[in-house]
Amino acid sequence: MSPFSLFVVYLLIWWLTLFAVLPMGIRGQAEEDKIVRGSEPGAPVESNMKRKVKITTIFATIIWLIVCTVIWSGALNWDMIAEWINIDKLAE
User: CA–CA separation, 10 vs 39, rounded Å?
Assistant: First the structure.
């Protein structure tokens, strides 16, 4: 894999991980009885974005290392994936 491919794979994994981490631990204003006038009652009281970015980076790096190891080891390649989904049958 080229350095650009490695970066793109990491970026995709990081964004997917971020969207999985974002809702964790969120308490809405209505749940805390701290509704700010003019805001959505479901809006978070505190977002903790720095903490979530750190958690995202840690998990994304671990997942990325696993994905790269699987690709480099040859345990998974495009030919195998094509066999699993029967690309030849899809083309007919």
Answer: 35
Predicted structure pTM score:
0.74
Q: What is the DSSP string of 10-65?
A: HHHHHHHHHHHHTTTT--BHHHHT-PPTTS-TTSBS---HHHHHHHHHHHHHHHHH
Question: Domain boundaries in the chain?
Answer: 3-91
CB half-sphere exposure, 65, CA atoms < 13 A? 5
30-49 tens-digit pLDDT = 888 888 888 888 888 888 89
CA distance 73 to 65: 12
- Rg value, the chain, Cα: 20
